[in-house]
Amino acid sequence: MPDPAFPSDIGDRKRPPVALIAGPTASGKSAVALRLAKAHGGVIINADASQVYADLAVLTARPSPDEAAQAPHRLFGHVDGAQACSAAFWASEARTEIGRAHAQGRLPILVGGTGLYLDTLLHGIAPIPDIDPATRAAVRALPVADAHIALTHEDPIAAARLNPGDTTRVARALEVVRSTGQPLHHWQARRTGGIAGRMPIHAVVVMLPRKELAQRAGRRLEQMLAGGAIAEVEALLARNLPADRPVLRALGVREIGDMLAGRLSLVEAQAAILAATTAYQKRQITWGRNRQRAWTKLAPDPIATLDDLPLLPGSGA
Fold first, then answer.
1. 267 CB-contact burial (10 Å; exposed 0-12 / middle 13-18 / buried 19+)
2. Residues 209 and 107 in one domain
3. pLDDT, tens digit, for every residue of 5-56?
4. By C-alpha distance, which of 79, 86, 82 is closest to 114?
5. pTM of the entire structure?
6. Does residue 214 contact residue 195 with C-beta atoms inside 8 Å?
């Protein structure tokens, strides 16, 4: 079935290019994207799972009004916190924005640290049927240790790959095999809708030493806390959203909430946020080394034009 974002499948490899910029939080990705946009008349498309939400402009380091005025920005702050934005939903929106940018003769520049978003955009989604609600409820009621033990028998490949303490992913793998009768890797091998192979893709993972990343994160956090992040979280929590809303899992929301409730001091909350941020940076670095191993790894400062971002292998010219 033709992709509505790309109405013509003829000569896909002759389509204009797209740039992908990934990397850990506070690595300088946004500055790289803005330089590329100004150099090429590009459109910057958000690929950060927290920056999609309207509620947290400061806490998620969304582009400032001055930055947004220097180039078109898309998919930033366009989802209400009451909604859940999945990787599949975001990828569909991103494909639409890529198509619009190409139609306007602009370079689409996707930037963000959510590896799953970019992976879904590149390789598509697995056509997993809807999960039986009773099966889902039964699986989600299991302690994660019990769920992982069950997974070792029902989907040993997933069990070996997943962290035994990863409640969300272990439950997902178990509910898929129980509901569909097929393991998760069966469906993932049938992914559809990705842009890989359909256009030239220039991709880079912006990398810096971990000590420098932590220092940059610390400085940015101080600016966030002084610049309105606390008021943002207070307003968000006042909405009394369901506890499973993804916006509530954004870095800093829980810690600032604890501070507002008197369970932490400002100093303690700041230290806890920074610790969570550096742990997240470590996971992003691991993703970049493993899941984005074919991408070029570069420091942010030398990147000024598309020529500084090599093509992904097999993406065409």
1. exposed
2. yes
3. 554 443 455 789 999 999 999 999 999 999 999 999 999 999 999 999 999 9
4. 86
5. 0.86
6. no
